[in-house]
Design a protein that fits this description.
Blueprint: H1 2-12, E1 15-17, E2 22-27, E3 30-36, E4 42-50, H2 54-70, E5 74-79, E6 83-89, H3 95-112, E7 116-117, E8 128-133, E9 136-141, H4 142-161, H5 166-189, H6 195-213, H7 218-248, H8 256-261, H9 263-267, H10 270-302, E10 308-310
Antiparallel strand pairs: 1-2, 2-3, 3-4, 4-6, 4-7, 5-6, 8-9, 8-10
Helix pairs in contact: 1-3, 5-6, 5-7, 6-7, 6-10, 7-10
The chain binds zinc ion.
Length: about 300
């Protein structure tokens, strides 16, 4: 995929961007972005045009609609009146030729219907550039980029000013944890290993905190996870008590609470304590997985630490 993009850039005079797995620049007077769709053997050609009459735009749209039938290398092609996106299957060494052939025919159709490159957002035909937004190449005009930049810094500012309400958040995390407890008990009763619920439990607590306490900051994350850890232990005990209760209620006159109180007695039995410990270990392990992925996503999204810069 990488070699194909590099060759395509050399052949067409466009710029190859290894970091973003993209090729961009002007080709035959049109500003293009060609990228490798992440984790897939597919290229995407993207550009924005306007300028023709509504009938001409319709004609381009019809051409796009038939493109995947007329060209077997095309996986899908869409033109919404301004934005064009063509997905091209990669077929190794022939990819570059296929891409060039598609580019040439698509652009000649656009030209014949008086279409001109334009800004994705406002339709301006001048001052176009290619920018990296969050690590992805996007084409737009200088004015729209400035607006995007100031929107981002305003969003960053309001996020910074947003207070986290610890009391509300704690209540939210506790409410969220109840969903996790209920799920744990249900899955346990059904006879499955409830470990995956550990993941759900951590997510429920963090979502609950966010809903009732505003921003999920570091303190909120710690509180949510402490609640999740404690409630998972509680859920395991409730499950165990239910099992004891169901086992003995026929022969002895006991309540659920008697069963709950008798747990320490049962834990003296090796096989019981071993299975409880393995349930908990699995639950806590998956809880850890949920926390790590959530912390990473929070860092990347909530803090809006997105790259934003001009590439060409
Ligand atoms: Zn614009």
């Amino acid at each position: 995929m990488r070699a194909s993009l590099k060759t395509l850039a050399q052949d067409t005079g466009m710029t190859y961007d290894q970091k973003r797995m993209s090729v961009f620049g002007y080709y035959q007077g049109y500003q293009m972005i060609i990228r490798n769709v992440q984790n897939r053997r597919v290229f995407e050609i993207r550009f924005h045009v306007n300028g023709g009459t509504p009938e001409q735009a319709k004609a381009v749209q019809d051409y796009f609609a038939g493109l995947s039938q007329s060209n077997p290398a095309v996986k899908s092609a869409v033109f919404d009146g301004v934005g064009a996106s063509i997905q091209v299957k990669s077929n190794g060494k022939n990819s570059v030729e296929a891409l060039k052939e598609i580019l040439n025919s698509v652009l000649s159709v656009c030209r014949s219907y008086s279409m001109v490159s334009c800004c994705k957002y406002c339709g301006a035909q001048t001052n176009l550039g290619v920018y990296s937004l969050g690590g992805e190449c996007t084409s737009m005009c200088g004015g729209c980029f400035e607006k995007a930049q100031s929107d981002l810094s305003a969003a960053r500012q309001s996020l910074k000013e947003q207070k986290s309400n610890i009391a509300g958040g704690t209540v939210g995390a506790l409410l969220g944890s109840l969903i996790g407890v209920a799920l744990w008990v249900i899955v346990y009763q059904l006879g499955y290993i409830a470990g995956i619920v550990g993941f759900v439990m951590a997510v429920c607590c963090m979502k609950g905190y966010e809903k009732f306490g505003g921003k999920l900051n570091a303190a909120g994350m710690v509180i949510s996870l402490l609640i999740a850890v404690a409630m998972l232990y509680f859920a395991e005990n409730v499950s165990l008590a239910l099992e004891i209760y169901n086992e003995f209620k026929m022969d002895y006159d006991i309540t659920f609470f008697d069963a709950f109180r008798s747990i320490p007695e049962f834990m003296k039995d090796d096989s019981v304590s071993r299975s409880v410990l393995s349930d908990l270990a699995m639950g806590y392990l998956l809880m850890l997985v949920a926390s790590v992925s959530s912390i990473r996503a929070t860092y990347q999204n909530a803090n809006l630490k997105h790259e934003m810069k001009k590439l060409s």
